[in-house]
């Protein structure tokens, strides 16, 4: 059942993003930022954790999950460091995932040649 919930929740998130891309003039970068901010807001108001418990990877893998990770890091850092944690918490919490994305992206660029679209 966990796989099923992850599949349909992740699919609905992707469907909503696709509708945004098709029906609005929002650029993909702005939609990605919208997803991260939405995940952070849902985390801040306490809605994201029950949602992620139900949906599993369907909620944690998309960019909503990245916003949640940033917000959790900020909350922990503010508790430990005070106001300074606002600036450092998100970076610490997301450092491993961001570093992995950069490293794997670089390795992929070494292995494959990109083709310019016309």
Task: Write up this protein.
- This protein has 118 residues and is an all-alpha fold.
- It has one domain.
- It is 82% helix and 0% strand.
- 21% of the residues are buried.
Tags for this entry?
118 residues; 6 helices; mainly alpha; globular
> What is the residue-mean pLDDT, rounded to a whole number?
89
- Tally of helical segments: 6
Strand content: under 5%
SSE succession: HHHHHH
The coarse silhouette is globular
Poorly predicted sequence stretches spanning 5 or more consecutive residues: none
Q: What distance lies between the first and last C-alpha atoms, to the nearest angstrom? A: 44 Å
Helix percentage range: over 70%
Give the C-alpha Rg. Answer: 17 Å
* Overall number of strands: 0
Give a short synopsis of this structure.
By secondary structure, this protein is mostly helical. The protein has six helices and no strands.
Chain-wise SSE layout:
Elements: H1 2-23, H2 28-44, H3 48-55, H4 57-60, H5 63-81, H6 85-111
